[in-house]
Write a structure and sequence with these properties.
The chain has 221 residues and is of the alpha+beta class. It is built from eight helices and four strands; from the N terminus they run ααβαααβαβαβα. Helix content is 41%, strand content 13%. A four-stranded antiparallel β-sheet has the order 1-2-4-3, sandwiched between helices. It is globular, with a radius of gyration of 18 Å.
């Protein structure tokens, strides 16, 4: 698979099989992903992977906070903050696409909440990874984490694996710090659930369109 094929094949997967990915494969992916570029080669990223019993403990700990009524407390604002106009429209269309596929009406608050909670079930994925960087860093450094994350996901795609990048996984950092090995002084920016896609899962039939090149680019000579 070349890079073009990997980019076209990658999908945000929200339904996974329980089968674990061999640790050797995860390590191989990270071994290559570390070559992602960063500002002045600062390499500000850290990725903490949880699997098996640790993943189950983490899911339970996050839901303990949610069920206790604790509201999200991310270090950085969520990706939905500041969205206006066509960007907000695309965000809504994305959500409504998933609601419609899963038979959840726009006015079904409980159904929408149940879909939202699947984020902290890692959509059934056997592995979850948390990307963090020093809390003293800012937006430019977060760009480096985005490059690293995309590299990581494309390498998974090359190996027949699937992933779901999730800003929601930065919403309850307390349990993550207790269970995952996040460096002291680092703040969690986002997470990614990954494993083998469940091709029979209805939620994986959703396809998101992309804007035409004329809308996203310009050329000046």
């Amino acid at each position: 698979m070349n890079v073009t094929d990997a980019v076209r094949a990658r999908r945000t997967t929200r339904g996974f099989l329980p089968d674990p990915v061999p640790e050797a494969v995860i390590r191989e992916v990270l071994e290559v992903a570390r070559y992602a570029p960063s500002n002045s080669n600062t390499q500000p990223w850290h990725i903490a992977v949880v699997s098996g019993a640790a993943r189950e403990r983490l899911q339970n700990a996050i839901f303990a906070e949610i069920n206790a009524g604790k509201t999200p407390y991310p270090t950085w604002p969520s990706g939905g903050v500041g969205l206006k106009g066509e960007y907000k429209d695309r965000q809504r269309a994305c959500g409504f696409g998933y609601y419609a596929t899963m038979g959840v009406d726009r006015d079904d608050a409980e159904g929408r909440r149940e879909l939202l909670l699947k984020n902290w079930e890692f959509f059934g994925a056997p592995h979850a990874a948390f990307l963090s960087m020093p809390e003293t860093m800012h937006r430019a450094n977060a760009l480096d984490l985005g490059i690293f994350l995309q590299t990581f996901m494309l390498l998974l795609t090359e190996r027949g694996l699937a992933a779901c990048p999730q800003g929601a996984l930065g919403s309850y950092p307390g349990p993550v710090r207790e269970i995952a090995d996040v460096p002291a002084g680092n703040a969690i920016l986002c997470g990614v659930s990954f494993g083998y896609a469940d091709t029979a899962a209805k939620i994986n039939t959703v396809h998101m369109d992309r804007e035409p090149i004329e809308r996203i680019s310009s050329f000046t000579s």
